[in-house]
Amino acid sequence: MPMPSLGFNRQVVRDNPDFWGPLAVVLFFSMISLYGQFKVVSWIITIWIFGSLTIFLLARVLGGEVAYGQVLGVIGYSLLPLIVIAPVLLVVGSFEVVSTLIKLFGVFWAAYSAASLLVGEEFKTKKPLLIYPIFLLYIYFLSLYTGV
């Protein structure tokens, strides 16, 4: 949840990174993306690993103190909004405008959630420089889901 006002302790994901939880989320996203395209599972896992590496390198260049495991965990767990919107897209898929708005909402939610967890106090002013590549990464994840 990107909103700290809701009372969730969001820093747990960044402070105690794990591998198996985000991997389970990524595999679940891969399983719901399987509809007629089995090759997408390896693509999603590869994009998760190398996309997280790219975000990690960008965060380090911008002056952030994050570890690669933290970035893997945050990017993996932040796929949950795309998993939430997947069943909604099945229902409203025939309405193109509504479907596009739901896709944009899910990608913005995921990107903002990931960026807000990765950006510490040390480089708060450079947050837009990190949100943009994260946003592009989640657009790529969504395009793998939709088959575009």
UniProtKB/TrEMBL annotation:
GO terms for biological process: endoplasmic reticulum to Golgi vesicle-mediated transport; vesicle fusion with Golgi apparatus. It comes from the Eukaryota. InterPro entries: Yip1/4-like (IPR045231), Yip1_dom (IPR006977). Residues 8-143 form the Yip1 domain. Its main location: Golgi. It is found in: Golgi apparatus membrane; Golgi apparatus, cis-Golgi network membrane. The chain crosses the membrane at residues 20-38, 44-62, 74-95, 101-120, 129-147. The keyword Transmembrane applies. It is a multi-pass membrane protein. GO terms for cellular component: endoplasmic reticulum; Golgi membrane; plasma membrane; trans-Golgi network. The keyword Zinc does not apply. Keywords: Golgi apparatus, Membrane, Transmembrane, Transmembrane helix. Involved in the maintenance of the Golgi structure. Belongs to the YIP1 family. This is Protein YIPF. The gene is YIPF4.
